């Protein structure tokens, strides 16, 4: 089985392979960027959820301690507002949002 290719056919074939590789790499870059954007968005939502959960926990504990109050609305507002602020600060302080530096295009992992 002999294959006879002209020079122009080989150049066209090599160009087609090169074009295919370039399209494949650009698709991989786009997918990587899209995944990174999705992770960044999920971090924000996850942080908000943890803040609300910690706030609910702190309010619940304080509510059990201070149940003898007669004015429940005032007591709830007085306890919930500082807990919301404290939960936000503690959650932000204890959460790792970025592990290391971002790599540029040519760096190895």
Describe what you observe in this structure.
The chain crosses the membrane at residues 6-24, 44-64, 76-95. Keywords: Membrane, Transmembrane, Transmembrane helix. By secondary structure, this protein is an all-alpha fold. It has one domain. It is built from two helices and no strands. The chain has helices at residues 7-65, 72-94. Helix 1 (7-65) packs antiparallel against helix 2. It is rod-shaped, with a radius of gyration of 29 Å.
Record keyword descriptors for this entry.
2 helices; 109 residues; single chain
In short:
This protein has about 110 residues and is mostly helical. About 75% of the residues lie in helices and about 0% in strands.
The structure class reads: mainly alpha
Question: What does the radius of gyration come to?
Answer: 29 Å
Number of helices: 2
Order of helices and strands: HH
Main beta-sheet strand count, sense and barrel state? none
Residue-averaged pLDDT: 78
Keywords: Membrane, Transmembrane, Transmembrane helix
């Amino acid at each position: 089985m002999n294959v006879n290719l002209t020079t122009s056919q080989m150049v066209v074939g090599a160009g087609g392979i090169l074009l295919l590789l370039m399209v494949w790499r650009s698709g991989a870059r786009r997918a990587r960027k899209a995944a990174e954007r999705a992770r960044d968005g999920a971090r924000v939502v996850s942080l908000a959820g943890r803040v609300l959960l910690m706030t609910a926990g702190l309010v619940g504990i304080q509510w059990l301690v201070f149940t003898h109050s007669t004015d429940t609305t005032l007591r709830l507002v007085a306890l919930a507002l500082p807990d919301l602020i404290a939960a936000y600060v503690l959650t932000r302080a204890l959460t790792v949002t970025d592990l290391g530096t971002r790599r540029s295009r040519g760096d190895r992992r």
